Amino acid sequence: MIELAGLTKRYGRTTAVQDLTFSVRPGVVTGFLGPNGSGKSTTMRMILGLDHPSAGQVRIDGRRYHQLADPLTHIGALLEAKAVHPGRTAYHHLLCLAQSNDIPLRRIDDVLDLVGLAGVAKKRPKGFSLGMGQRLGIASALLGDPRILMFDEPVNGLDPEGIQWIRNLMKRLAAEGRTVFVSSHLMSEMALTADHLIVIGQGRLLADTSMARFIEENARTFVRVRSPDHERLRAALERAGGRPRQCPDGSLEIEDLPAARVGELAAENDVVLHELSHQQASLEEAFMRLTHESVEYHARAGR
């Protein structure tokens, strides 16, 4: 488990992270979301002891990072895929990590095979593609077979097969009872991967909740219905207490009646339907709605 209590980081007059308190629990994939500049990377660096908090603390299974003997056997992380010595082969990069953390050398071949790099183990990472570099970074995180995994943008540079692989890997690791904490800007991918969400904006905690509840609380859901006799349908919906909204394509949108009731009303009034569908909001829509006031960098539409 990762536990943050009042975590704060200041750089001069700039506060990058302010009073963050949350826990990342084992057994689920926890997504870490926030706009650019929200403090996600700074938070992850403080978890690993790479940056020192101005206030508050982080504990990894009850201890601070510097108190962990052989830390890679407790927490494995991918923060920057290119953070490798360009003159070492992939194998020797992992060998240095293994020797410094008292990890059995047989584990090197295991993780290289797991991430699909066994065939290039003797090659130098400086010639690797971005996707291959990501796979080596993931291998480094897995090397100590830790109970806690932390990934920052793990799908960068991966092809569709690689994206599906890392998604399934994170789910499997969580199913084994491990703690999995992952940051990504790809909302569609996060929606398929994460069970729980931590959302921050301008360094502050905005949400700590399940994926389903986050979408339910922060995005609009409605029923869309189309009929060649939409005026009669509208009247029936209004008599039942609904407030249908007319769309440019002729369909009606209703937020205050469930799809089943809309269908029943149409049947009771002999109204033919061409469409009746429940529209579930996306994670992206929910995220944008919650964080729109926390976005630090805004682009303007071009001509």
From TrEMBL:
The protein, known as: ATP-binding cassette domain-containing protein
Stored SUPFAM superfamilies: P-loop containing nucleoside triphosphate hydrolases (SSF52540)
Lineage, opening ranks: Bacteria, Bacillati, Actinomycetota, Actinomycetes, Kitasatosporales
UniProt domain ABC transporter: residue ranges: 2-227
Statement: the UniProt record of this protein carries the keyword Membrane: no
PANTHER family noted in UniProt: ABC TRANSPORTER, ATP-BINDING PROTEIN
Gene3D superfamilies attached to this UniProt entry: P-loop containing nucleotide triphosphate hydrolases (3.40.50.300)
Family of this protein: Belongs to the ABC transporter superfamily.
Record-level Gene Ontology MF annotations: ATP binding; ATP hydrolysis activity
Claim: Lyase is one of the keywords in the record: no
